[in-house]
Amino acid sequence: MITPVTDVIPLASNFLVPNGTFIVELIAFVIIVFLLFKYIVPPIDRAMTARQDAIRQQFADLDKAKEDANSAKDEFESQIADARKEAARIREDAREQGAAIIAEMREQAQAEANRIAEHGKSQIEAERQQAIASLRAEVGTLATGLAGRIVGESLEDDARQSRVVERFLTELETSDPVAAVQATPAQQAQAAAVAEAPTGFPGAVQAPADGSQPEGYVVKANGESMLYHAPGGRWYDTTQAEYWFKSEEDAVAAGFTKAGTRKKSAQ
Predict the structure, then answer these.
(1) What's the pTM value of the predicted model, to 2 decimals?
(2) CA separation for the pair 159, 166 (Å, rounded)
(3) Contact status, residue 161 vs residue 118, Cβ threshold 8 Å
(4) Which residues contact 206 (CB under 8 A, 6 or more apart)?
(5) Beta bridge partners of 49
(6) CA 148, CA 139: separation in Å to the nearest integer?
(7) What is the DSSP string of 206-235?
(8) In 3D, which of 214, 220, 166, 171 has the Cα closest to residue 190?
């Protein structure tokens, strides 16, 4: 039987067997690790922990700032909405107050205008009555004298004079105040005297000496020929009136005949 021969490895070259160098290295490593965990790792760990805490705090502060910003934004928007509502309410109130003030001012202006108009009417009426009273006291004799000269007949008779003055003042009272102011006393006295002057023909008035046409009288008449001329007639414009009538019916009733009708009747 053959026994195999194996190589014998020396203990000094076997890495599985620790030697003195390995032990020293192991001890040095342990010391280094101890020193690291004793003096180096704790500060680094504390620094890292502090850094992490600072980062967490920063994130927390950022979250809080974000919440505050959102809250401020919501509050600002709420204030803006309230301000807009308040501004709209103020504008509406101002519009209503302005309309009320305008309406009140209009009412006051209308009331003041009515008051001024009424005061003016009262003042005009008072002045008119005062003027009439003054005319009654001062113009009677003047109007009678002027009327007598115009119609060529004396009006010294008291009754006739009184009627002329009363007619003159009555027409003045019932006439338009503006027209009464514009008409002269002589013109008004002439109208009253012409209406009162005797003619002998009912409804007729004697023609004024100046050849003017009495107001309201349109038909011309001649006492000698007993003919009258109506407006639009052939000889109306060229005829000098001796008497005046208001209408053709008045002239016919007084016994006058329309000019031009006798010739036709004779034919």
Answers:
(1) 0.30
(2) 10
(3) no
(4) 151, 194, 197, 198, 199, 242, 243, 244
(5) none
(6) 14
(7) EPPTT-PPPTT--EEEETTTTEEE-TT-TT
(8) 214
